[in-house]
Amino acid sequence: MSAPDTPGPGAPTGALTLEAQSGWLRVRWHALGGPCELLVDGEDQPHAMDLARLASAESWRIERKYSRYRDDSVLSQWQRQAGEPLSVDDETAGLLDYAEECHALSDGRFDLTSGVLRRVWIFDGSERVPSEAAVREVLRYVGWNRVCWQRPVLTLPPGFELDLGGIGKEYAVDRAAAAVAAEAHVPFLVNFGGDLFTPAARSDGTPWSVGIDDPARTGRAATHQVELERGGLATSGDARRFVLHEGRRLGHILDPRTGWPVAGAPAGVTVLAATCLEAGTLATLAVLAGPAAADFLRSQGVVHQIHAAVS
How many whole angstroms from its chain centre is CA 278? Predict the structure, then answer.
């Protein structure tokens, strides 16, 4: 069973679609570059749609504000005004402070300026790999340490741009979940493209069962299951975005110090944490740690799964 609903003004994509399952409801929409959904326990369809409107509105708001693909986003504004000091709002300042902490924690491997490397890297499963000269040229515009950030004033060097892709979707999950939690009278789970948050198990006490994509079996039935009672869950890896080079599979997470995919990185890392933002950050930092991913996650004391690199 499904019922369409039209998103509000300014929403970038189509309708909300409700599906009734056995004892729970699923509402789907598209935002942040991929599929989004809200799972709601019980069978109260009007309530589920009301909650989904809150979640989708928040996802579209964050997309409008921070998408690098929109000319009217703050990221595009920063790029157009590189070299000029810009004052940012409290929400944006909080994200930049958080990214700066991640940069320090990762010894420079987590870097908001590294998105510019997409100019030469296209992770489409092909064997197209940029030349070392092309990578070196783009690296001229990479380096958080060259950005002047003194809250609330940001100044980008000319030619630089910032990309919140490493934290934006996970942040959106937490924000959407907070909006839903303020109005929900039943358990729910927010899922934006595999990044999740739930505040509680289902009404009967059973956890939400979440399937994890195996990088070696992308597109097939999930072979890894996580029972999620509360908190955030996120996965980082090369299940869908990679290139093949000299017989090796290179994932899409790049080391900003070299401009190349992280050497010796696991194919995938799944982390369970208190929030989706924390889970996603730790998963990404683990991949950036390469062969030391397991040691890093153990040092953080979080529940996690690591998928070995695909040969």
Answer: 11
Which SS3 state, helix, strand or coil, does residue 261 take? strand
Number of continuous H segments (helices) and E segments (strands) in the chain:
7, 18
Assess whether pLDDT exceeds 70 at residue 247.
Answer: no
pLDDT tens across 98-122, in order?
Answer: 999 999 999 999 999 999 998 998 8
- The Cα 38–Cα 190 span in angstroms is 5
From 21, 18, 13, select the one nearest 50 (Cα to Cα).
18
pLDDT value at 201 more than 80 = yes
Q: Residue 128 has what pLDDT? A: 84
Cα end-to-end distance, the chain, whole Å: 42
Distance CA 237, CA 263 (A): 13
- Which pair of tokens denotes residue 82? 């590189």
Tokens 């529940």 found at: 303
Beta bridge partners of 271: 234, 304
Q: What is the mean pLDDT of residues 74-102?
A: 96
- Residue among 10, 104, 118, 115 nearest 64 (CA): 10
What is the C-alpha separation between 40 and 185, in angstroms, rounded?
10
* Residues contacting residue 89 through CB under 8 Å, at least 6 positions apart: 152
Secondary structure (DSSP) of 256-307? TTTTEEPTT--SEEEEEESSHHHHHHHHHHHHHTGGGHHHHHHHHT-EEEEE
Distance CA 201, CA 208 (A): 6
Least confident of 49-58, 174-183, 210-219, 289-298: 210-219
Structure-block tokens of residue 78 = 């920063």
Q: What percent of the chain has pLDDT over 90?
A: 73
Q: In what order do the strands lie in the sheet with 303-307?
A: 2-5, 16-20, 24-31, 34-41, 188-192, 195-198, 231-237, 268-273, 303-307
Contact status, residue 62 vs residue 172, Cβ threshold 8 Å: yes
Q: Peptide bond preceding 152: is omega within 30 degrees of 0, i.e. cis?
A: yes
